[in-house]
Structure of Putative methylamine utilization protein maue:
Amino acid sequence: MVPALETALRLFLAGLFAYASLDKIAHPDQFAAIIRDYRLLPQAAVPFTAVVLPWLEAVLALALVLGKWREGALFLSVALLVAFFASLVANMARGLDVSCGCFSTATGSGGNMAWYLVRDGFFVLAGLGAWYLGVWRRRSPDG
C-alpha cells in the first residue's frame, strides 16, 4: 500500500509540474509579465526566471515519472511548491490580486487568491506526503 501511494503521489506531482510547464515554455514573455506582477524578484532576474523555471518544472516532471534521482526530485518538488505557496501568501498579505501564473500565462484581473492558497496548500501536502513516503520513511529504521 505504501509504495503504491508514494508512486501515485509522485506521478501526481509529475503531472502537475509537466502541465504547469507547458504554457510557460510556450510563452516566456507572458510568464515574465506575471513574475514581474508578483514583485518578489529583482527586475533583472525576471527574464532568466521566466525561461529557466518552466524548463526546471519539465525536467523535474520527467525525473519524477522515471523515478530517477528520487530524493532530489522529491526535495526540489517540495521546495518549489513551498516557494510558490509562500509567494502567494506574500502577495495576499500585501493586498495584491495577481494572476497566479501556475498553469496558464493568460493575464487577467488577477484571480481568487484564497482559492490559489487552498489549492497550492493541497499541492504542498501532496509533495510532503510523497517526500515522506519516498525518502524519509525509506531512511528510517522501521521503513
Q: What stands out?
A: Residues 113-139 form the longest helix (27 residues). Residues 2-137 form one domain.
